[in-house]
Amino acid sequence: MCIRDSVMGAISTPTPETPPVPTSTPDPDPVLSGEITLEVDATGNYFWVGVHAGDFNFDYEYIGVCEPGLTQTYGLDVPDGDWNVICVVYMDGIRFEGPPLNGDQAGNHGALYPAWPSGTTVTISGGAPVTADITVVQVFDNVSGTITMPQAQPGNEYAVFLDMDAFETDGGEMAYVTGICGLNNKIEYSFLAAVPGNYFIYAVVDNTGDGLYNDLNPPDGSGVDAGDYLGFYGGSGINPPAAPLAIDNSQTYVLDFDVAEVQP
Ligand SMILES: [Ca+2]
Ligand SMILES: [Ca+2]
Ligand SMILES: [Ca+2]
User: Fold this and answer.
1) 78 within 8 A of 32, measured Cβ to Cβ
2) Residue 141's CB: how many other CB atoms inside 10 A?
3) N or C, which terminus of the chain has less Cβ within 10 Å?
């Protein structure tokens, strides 16, 4: 799976792929261009501009390197249509695509984060150039919690997801965090829910040692195995709740839940 095909540019299950080197080549005569206004200087860090048709599946993107100062420019060719334009500035100096993480800067054209525009905000018609400026602000983790396991699994890998659906691996994952279980039966997690919406929050612990990627990508393997842990916020056992949870990205949430052992 190409991670950029997924939601928020890269929210997908963990992948062993080595990401490509950024290949941003400014278009000398772009159809869509604009200025990005930063909240804090990010000289030398990557920024990503993603264009989607309102579904958070990013069809077009631009990757640039921040120049000194608080104003950056982008430009790319986008076909006729109605679009949303999002920008993420990665503050770690390493990432160049994917969802904003704690401390990154993020924003969208047409509303100031944490507000999101309703519907699309850019219309391109007849290939005529359009300007779409974006103001980004620093964003921080707003969902955290404690996951309780049936027993400690020190050294085993876990993943916690914010997903539009319940444990599908082909899209809708708007945030995730992975880590290694410690010595007790608790997992403390946090991530940023940047986009308001209705979500399932769930965790997987790979107790069988075949890898999170294997567990989360059934086409690549067997999916979650008997002996692994799985659980949902608001769910029961390994089962999801009947309905997803409404998340307002301007609020903070503490979401504790349990995981249970997957049975044969
Ligand atoms: Ca999903
Ligand atoms: Ca497993
Ligand atoms: Ca597996």
Assistant:
1) yes
2) 16
3) C
Q: Which domain holds residue 233?
A: 143-261
CB 89 within 8 A of CB 136: yes
Nearest ligand by distance to the CA of 216: 3
Strand, helix or coil for residue 3: helix
Domain-ending residue, one of 138, 158, 188: 138
Look at residue 167 and give its three-state secondary structure: coil
Q: Which residues surround ligand 2, an ion (CB under 5 A)?
A: 206, 208, 210, 215, 225, 228
Residues 127 and 175 in one domain: no
For ligand 2, the distance from its centroid to the CA atom of residue 114, given in whole angstroms, is: 36
Q: Which ligand is nearest to the CA of 208?
A: 2
- The ligand minimizing its distance to the Cα of 169 is 1
Question: Closest Cα to residue 231, out of 264, 205, 193?
Answer: 205
Indicate which ligand has the atom closest to the C-alpha of 173: 1
User: Could you read off the pLDDT of 197-252 as tens digits, one per residue?
Assistant: 999 999 999 999 999 888 887 766 568 999 999 999 999 999 999 999 999 999 99
